[in-house]
Design goal:
Length: about 120
C-alpha cells in the first residue's frame, strides 16, 4: 500500500504515523483544515437549550450550527424518516418510465430534496 503525508511524499509520515490516502486523493496534496481558534460564549440556560435543541433538530453539532450562522446560512431541520421513504418510492417508481421522463422526474426529486434539506441564506 502506498503511504502519503500532508505534503504528498510517498512513504513519509504525519506526526510519526504513516496514513494511506483514498484512491481519489493519490497524487494530490492533502491539506487538513484547522480550526485553532476557540471561542467561549456565555449563554443563558434558555439560550443554551435552544442552541442544543436546534442543532439536534438539524443533525448538526452546536459548533457546526454556529459556523453556518457566521457564513450567513440557516440550516433546515432534518426531514422525518417518512420523507426519505416517500422520496425513495418516487425514485423507484420513476424507473418504470421511459428514459426521457426519468430525467425529468430525477430533476424534480432533486428539487424536492433541495427545497427540504438545503440551508437558507440569512
Amino acid at each position: 500500500m502506498d503511504l502519503y503525508t500532508k505534503s504528498g511524499e510517498a512513504g513519509a509520515s504525519r506526526r510519526g504515523t504513516a496514513f494511506p490516502l483514498q484512491p481519489h486523493q493519490k497524487g494530490r496534496i492533502c491539506h487538513m483544515r484547522t480550526r485553532d481558534n476557540l471561542i467561549s460564549v456565555h449563554l443563558t440556560e434558555d439560550e443554551s437549550d435552544r442552541l442544543k435543541d436546534y442543532a439536534d433538530m438539524c443533525g448538526l453539532t452546536q459548533s457546526a450550527l454556529l459556523r453556518m450562522a457566521i457564513r450567513g446560512r440557516r440550516p433546515q431541520p432534518l426531514p422525518p424518516e417518512s420523507f426519505w421513504k416517500m422520496l425513495n418510492e418516487l425514485y423507484i417508481t420513476h424507473g418504470y418510465l421511459p428514459h426521457i421522463e426519468q430525467r425529468e422526474i430525477e430533476a424534480f426529486i432533486l428539487q424536492i430534496q433541495a427545497a427540504v434539506t438545503l440551508s437558507e441564506r440569512i
